[in-house]
Amino acid sequence: MGIPYSAQKDDLYYPAKHATFFPSGRPRSGAALCVEMARLAYCRLEATFAFDQDRIREVLERILFTDCRFFESAAAHDGGGSHAFLALDANNKLAILSFRGTDKDDPTDLADDLNTVPQLWQGRGKVHSGFAQALQEVWPAIEAALHDLNEYQLLFTGHSLGAAMATLASSLQKPRALYTIGSPRVGDQAFVDSLQELENHRYVDCCDLVTRVPPEVLGYTHIPGKIHYINFDRAVQQLYPDDPYIDRDRTQAEEDYLKNYAWRIGDVALRPLADHAPVNYVWPVTAATP
Questions:
Q1: I need a surface site. Which of 11, 124, 190, 216 has the fewest CB within 10 A?
Q2: Catalytic residue numbers?
Q3: Tens of pLDDT along 93-110?
Q4: What is the pTM of this model?
Q5: Structural domain of residue 117, as residue ranges?
Q6: CA torsion angle for 204, 219, 163, 141 (degrees, to 10)?
């Protein structure tokens, strides 16, 4: 199909480093907007974990978003922590809340990812403790900002850890739609049952390992329904997660990866990790929903 694929370590570990955001201008679809907004959340200053606000604002201004509000935990300028931004299009009354995923160099993000002990969540079942802690670092300020946006359509998005935070946020304030990119499992059956009325778009890139953790044996599950599955040929398909086609497609993809990428210097050794790179979501989703 001619859709690019990247196996490069930099695209997985530093998603904004070589990124050219919205190269064709503002996309028309919510999916294409959100998948790139999720990658944009990785823009940070080189010396700290804080947002590169100037770069983010410049990107958003080019696609006609009139304002941006940033939310970062107190440790952002020193030891890391949680990060989200709220992009506002006042002319079209559209607001997109985007959460940053795991930063490879931020030990607080890694600690959140690994803290898989379930905890009670707002009377909505149990959720991953690390993801809950990450959201709670920034949620009070976000909640206050959303309070002033009653006339706006809200879209929530994020990649990886950011997708988990966006899912939890959707349980506290319902957006018009949730777009998760490479999301891990977030909560138990009672939690996902509380989100039955949510318009949820879950994107899974082929072999992406993160979409298969934490394991179901610990009580975690995804929101039921179809997924937007990006196959080996880089086409986006709507499938149920248990469709046998997915296992066959992943086997083909991993075999191809071993022949063409795994041995190359600068590339990720395993396809289940390489497929988690945000850019490998951006290209096919944008091609499918320009």
A1: 216
A2: 160, 208
A3: 999 999 999 998 888 877
A4: 0.96
A5: 9-288
A6: 170
